[in-house]
Predict the 3D structure of the following.
Amino acid sequence: MKRNNLRIKKTILCRHINEYDVDSALAKTHYPKAGDIALFEVLEIGRHIAIQSETKRNVFLVEGDVIMAAYGNRYASGQFEGYVPEKPTEINDIIAIGGVIGIVKSKHAELELIEPTKVRLLGYAVDKNKKVLNTKYFATSKIPFTGTVPNNARVILSVGSTMDSGKTTSAAFLCRGLKTTEKNVAYIKLTGTTYTKDQDLAYDLGADVTLDFSDAGFPSTYMCTEAELLDLYQTLLGKLEPYNPDYILIEIADGLVERETDFLLRSPKFMSTVSNTMMSCGDSLSAFYAVDYLTKLRFPPTVLAGKFTMSPLLIEEVKAGTSIPVLTIDDLMSGRFVDLFTRQEALASKNGN
């Protein structure tokens, strides 16, 4: 399909969608759900001046462009809070660069004067039976949760005190450090909103294979049920089997008390697969709270990392208040502290976690 002789700009979320028809009548009758694929006309450029395309390249947008994207929810305390419309809605917002469409409910104060990029729903992508195409499990089969970890790999969980606390950077540089042991290292970003930047960083720093929830077709994981998250986790683990990983870094987005993060940290099924936890924090106070929080869940962090380690003063404050080792980026990538994770795994097993 073309409009005004312009090619459709397909977002990375819709990269597997090649054969489809467009049903414009459904724009007025269909109640969208997360993952539903549609074509949208760009009406007014706001926050998002580009989308991540099917080739991972960020593609510049201008008014009048037609994009293929999918509906989804978004939780981003430093950006937008957005949701799938509850009814047929003509004018929508781009709420994430990876091609997630919804309606913005709230935004960070720094974006007070910046509106979301507005798009008009043109029609839904449908199959030959006129069924709306959905990204979830479109190109891969769902694997129900069993707790099986490929190659009995050691699973290291990277979690943060808040959004932008340094958990992605810490996980990526730990991938580098783990590779110094000459083992196979995999990285999964299990929760968040579609944009491959985080998994790409982990790959650039040495991970042998990287995945995220969008590899199972999820626009985001915000508002997923615990059962959905567990099945998604098992599905992504299944994709790692051919790589025989020795270590798997699992990153879960946003902060400790964010809805899906809380689900997973309190899930015995999920945590039974985890050997170690790396906690990234922005300051000393959040580090102390995080240690207390995770310890009460009977899974204290193996190491503390994150933005606070950029400050020698904050490092000293944290070291004075907790016995949990503090690792900087240089420490993580050096590989000198890999043995910490092995010892903590034994401790976790002893505690019955």
Remarks:
- The first strand starts at residue 9 and ends at 10.
- The domain at 150-350 is CATH 3.40.50.300 (Rossmann fold).
- Confidence is low (pLDDT under 50) at residues 345-353.
